[in-house]
Amino acid sequence: MKEPNSSVTVSTxxxxxxxxxxxxxAAHRLGVSAARVRALLGQGRIEGARKQGRxxxxxxxxxxPKIIPGQRCPKGDWxxxxxxxxxxxxxxxxxxxxxxxxxxxRPAIGVKLGKHSEYCHYVEIGGRSRLVYSPTEPTWICxxxxxxxxxxxxxxxxxxxxxxxxxxxxVGVQEAAYLLGVxxxxxxxxxxxxxxxxxxxxxxxxxxxxxxxxxxxxxxSGLPEVSAGSRGPEGTWRRPPLRKTIILINQKxxxxxxxxxxRMPVIDIFKDGTVCRCHEVEIMGPSRILYRPxxxxxxxxxxxxxxxxxxxxxxxxxSS
Length: 320
Fold this sequence. Notes:
By secondary structure, this protein is an alpha+beta fold. The chain has helices at residues 23-30, 34-42, 93-102, 173-180, 184-191, 251-260, and strands spanning 20-21, 50-52, 55-59, 87-91, 109-113, 116-120, 122-125, 129-133, 146-150, 156-159, 170-171, 208-210, 213-217, 244-249, 267-271, 274-278, 280-283, 287-291, 301-306, 311-314. Helix 1 crosses helix 2 and helix 4 crosses helix 5. It is globular.
């Protein structure tokens, strides 16, 4: 077993809460979606916002965009002040068991950011996070014994997959966008058929439409196969080989700990051909949580990060 590296110096970039920010950062600070921010911008309800070229510049006051109240709509549920409480992410064990029982695909990753909560199939974390296993002291936020904690300044975004048919053979547009690391509009441009109006480019191998939804097959690398274009610059989507750090949760050990009141490590870190088992993990950069119910067992839920992201494992002093 690889010994965890505890002598790590972390340099955290300072988050500036003044000046002007973009749509994504404004959505994160307000606790709403980027589409909602764009709707507010289109209605002229964000004070001082100006469009420079194709990007919005949104001024902040006390670190927050100033929203002008509407005249005929209910009061918005966005944040007025900056969040000070950490965000919490956990897996709902009841939903996981139910999906295993009836082969369902319900979202099982619970995300709680301030007063907002939702369940997702995947979560993108834009900065540093901490995965904690505490078998005897569950967190008071969601009563979970295994959870991920995120600083309020770190962007967190999640979503749900809407994939028809067997996910092990094909995925939908939203999941393909997640796997390739591009937006939904870019995937629609790549997979659509060639027409006189140039709706799509037909560059994703095997993509077909079934019952008004696209089915996009995955290649041997686990990614949709995108062919090169005849004109324009090279695409910026993810390409194989993908070198990642994978973090898995050993569900059998969690059940064994609960039955015998023990504290065995349940977190397995796979990096560069080595395996490290621990109780707590500090992920020093962006990471992703992904739930794929079709895979089943303990491999249906995992955390992944780029290989260059530093990962620090920690053990409990009295573990057995």
